[in-house]
């Protein structure tokens, strides 16, 4: 198996110790190799427990030239409740006092959840699941079958008076067995009066 975190893939190829005159080799036909897509950017999805280089050596009882054999490797994904946030940090916002800034966006997804992902914006920032409308100070993303599909969150800065604002927006999901919370920084927003 080859793990490729940059591509979120696990590549699997069959190795046969009896091929190549008993010296062993990897099989290259379509039935002997495949690729699995897996999100490797979750919080600590893997723990290295060992490595193996080269192929097996020596003889194996019951395996002879021409015999059929197989092995199975199963990767168990984490069952921990997970909130995945991509597209942050956002660049700074600016607008005139009392006028919402242009929108910026990021995505939120989740897995192994029993409760909704709750998102709360700090003062003078607003969030929505819909571009151009329904902005407010908080929103909820309910799970379906334990997952929240990647959802775009639109953010805008809307300060009534001249000045700057900054803060953290919060993402959390209450689970019966534990509370999960993740915080992300919102870049400064500045409201300027035009002269």
Report on the architecture of this protein.
This protein has two domains: 1-78, no CATH class; 82-191, Immunoglobulin-like (Sandwich). A hairpin with a 4-residue loop joins strand 13 and strand 14 (179-191). It is mainly beta. Helices cover 0% and strands 41% of the residues. The model is unreliable at 49-60 (pLDDT under 50).
Task: Offer a concise description of the structure.
With 195 residues, the chain is mainly β. It has no helices and 14 strands.
Major sheet: 5 strands, mixed
Structural class: mainly beta
Low-pLDDT regions: 49-60
CATH superfamily of the largest domain: Immunoglobulins
CATH third-tier fold name of the largest domain? Immunoglobulin-like
Question: Number of domains in the coordinates?
Answer: 2
Number of helices: 0
Give helix and strand order, one letter per element, not per position. Answer: EEEEEEEEEEEEEE
Name the average pLDDT. 74
What would you report as the Rg, rounded to the nearest angstrom? Answer: 25 Å
Q: Record the strand order, biggest sheet.
A: 7-14-13-9-11
| Residue share in β-strands | 35-45%
User: Could you estimate the helical fraction of the residues in percent?
Assistant: under 10%
Q: Ends: how far apart?
A: 63 Å
Topology, please?
Layout: E1 2-4, E2 9-13, E3 15-16, E4 25-26, E5 33-37, E6 82-86, E7 93-95, E8 104-111, E9 117-120, E10 125-128, E11 138-141, E12 148-157, E13 163-174, E14 179-191
Parallel strand pairs: 7-14
Antiparallel strand pairs: 1-2, 2-5, 3-4, 6-8, 8-12, 9-11, 9-13, 10-12, 13-14
């Amino acid at each position: 198996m080859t793990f490729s975190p940059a591509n979120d893939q696990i590549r699997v190829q069959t190795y046969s110790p009896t091929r190549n005159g008993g010296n062993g080799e990897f099989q290259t036909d379509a039935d002997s190799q495949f690729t699995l897509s897996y999100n490797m950017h979750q919080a600590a999805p893997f723990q290295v427990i060992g490595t193996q280089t080269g192929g097996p050596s020596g003889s194996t009882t019951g395996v002879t030239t021409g015999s059929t054999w197989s092995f199975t490797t199963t990767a168990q994904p984490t069952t921990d409740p997970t909130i995945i946030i991509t597209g942050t940090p956002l660049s700074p916002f600016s607008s005139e006092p009392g006028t919402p800034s242009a929108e910026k966006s990021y995505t939120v997804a989740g897995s192994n959840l029993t409760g909704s992902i709750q998102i709360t914006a700090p003062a003078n920032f607003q969030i929505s699941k819909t571009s151009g409308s329904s902005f407010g100070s908080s929103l909820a993303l309910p799970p379906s079958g334990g997952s929240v599909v990647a959802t775009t969150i639109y953010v805008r800065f809307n300060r009534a008076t001249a000045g700057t604002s900054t803060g953290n927006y919060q993402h959390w999901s209450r689970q019966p067995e534990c509370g999960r919370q993740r915080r992300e920084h919102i870049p400064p927003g500045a409201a300027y009066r035009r002269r």
